[in-house]
């Protein structure tokens, strides 16, 4: 009588795993290909190889959408742990004595959405490096940077302007109106001056000839979102950062908003830990572009 032998477990290729995690985070093959510096056809082939090794379908693809299957959702948790362990092991062996303090400034909305996962992976890879993270408005952060209070600053900037020559672009944001627009004048929920989104909102309404007034000013993102949820007015947020319970405004009166960027700025004389954090952020968030 023949006894069926159990199928041996697959040994995963971490390069394929990294491709899968990148696609899951970015939501598109094209974005993942750009992030990883590869052709889209190569990315697609890597996912096919990974699914064959696991003998499960991880992604459901169509011309209009991309989503994780139930198996893909389960595997994503394991995949992120595998990559974190790999990166920590490599970092420890390459630079076992990396230690020090890095002072990072970042806009609050970016710090609450994209950044925690990135910084978590860094601190696991370099546990002896202490991060001092400060959240504030972009222009306030830049003032602090110029005064020497930060090693690195993530700053919002206008694409294609003189200020865009400063720093390395690591993220591009599509801005949207959120909340419900009441009868004119439009009520705005904004941060105190100086604020890039506040200026963007007012400039867009002025150009469109839409009457407006400021109804709520709050420096904390949580406070601004609470005002929007309460129906006090509309605010400007990056599309990818609109939280549950807050809807994108579909009112035809609201003018379109131009994209903005997040740039990483350094002081040009970085310590080894600060330089490693800069490289980590650029690698994790996007390909370096001027």
Protein architecture, described:
With 290 residues, the protein is α/β, with parallel strands linked by helices. The chain contains 10 helices and 11 strands. 42% of the residues lie in helices and 20% in strands. The strands form 4 sheets. Strands 4-3-5-11-6 form a 5-stranded mixed sheet, sandwiched between helices. Strands 1-2 form a two-stranded antiparallel ribbon. Helix 8 (196-208) links the parallel strand 8 (186-190) and strand 9 (212-217). Helix 1 (14-26) packs across helix 2 and helix 2 packs across helix 3 (40-54). The protein is globular. The termini are far apart.
- Element pattern in H and E: HHHEEHEHHEHEEEEHEHEEH
- Annotation, overall tally of beta strands: 11
Largest β-sheet summary: 5 strands, mixed
CATH topology of the largest domain: D-Maltodextrin-Binding Protein, domain 2
Query: What is the C-alpha radius of gyration, as a whole number of Å?
Result: 22 Å
- Count of helix runs: 10
User: What global shape is seen?
Assistant: globular
Enumerate the strands of the largest sheet in spatial order, edge to edge or round the barrel.
4-3-5-11-6
Q: Helicity level, as a percent range?
A: 40-55%
Uncertain residue segments: none
- Average pLDDT, to the nearest integer? 83
β-strand amount: 15-25%
| Name given to the CATH architecture of the largest domain | 3-Layer(aba) Sandwich
CATH superfamily of the largest domain: Periplasmic binding protein-like II
How far apart the termini lie comes to: 68 Å
């Amino acid at each position: 009588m023949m006894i069926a032998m159990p199928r041996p477990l697959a040994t995963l290729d971490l390069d394929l795993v990294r491709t899968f995690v990148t696609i899951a985070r970015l939501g598109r093959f094209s974005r993942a290909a750009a992030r990883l510096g590869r052709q889209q056809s190569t990315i697609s082939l890597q996912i096919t190889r990974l699914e064959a090794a696991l003998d499960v379908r991880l992604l459901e693809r169509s011309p209009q959408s991309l989503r994780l299957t139930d198996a893909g959702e389960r595997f994503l948790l394991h995949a992120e742990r595998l990559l974190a362990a790999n990166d920590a092991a490599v970092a420890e062996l390459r630079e076992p004595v990396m230690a020090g303090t890095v002072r990072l400034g970042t806009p609050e909305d970016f710090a609450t959405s994209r950044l925690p996962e990135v910084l978590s992976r860094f601190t696991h890879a370099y546990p002896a490096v202490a991060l001092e993270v400060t959240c504030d408005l972009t222009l306030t952060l830049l003032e602090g940077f110029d005064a020497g209070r930060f090693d690195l600053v993530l700053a919002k900037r206008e694409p294609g302007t003189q200020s865009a020559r400063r720093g390395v672009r690591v993220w591009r944001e599509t801005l949207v109106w959120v909340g419900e627009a009441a009868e004119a004048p439009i009520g705005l929920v904004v941060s105190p001056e100086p604020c890039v989104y506040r200026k963007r909102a007012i400039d867009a309404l002025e150009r469109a000839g839409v009457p407006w007034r400021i109804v709520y000013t709050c420096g904390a993102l949580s406070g601004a979102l609470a005002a929007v949820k309460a129906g006090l007015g509309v605010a400007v947020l990056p599309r990818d950062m609109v939280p549950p319970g807050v809807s994108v405004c579909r009112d035809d009166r609201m003018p379109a908003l131009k994209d903005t960027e997040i740039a990483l700025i350094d002081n040009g004389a970085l310590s080894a830990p600060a330089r490693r954090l800069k490289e980590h952020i650029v690698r994790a968030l996007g390909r370096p572009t001027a």
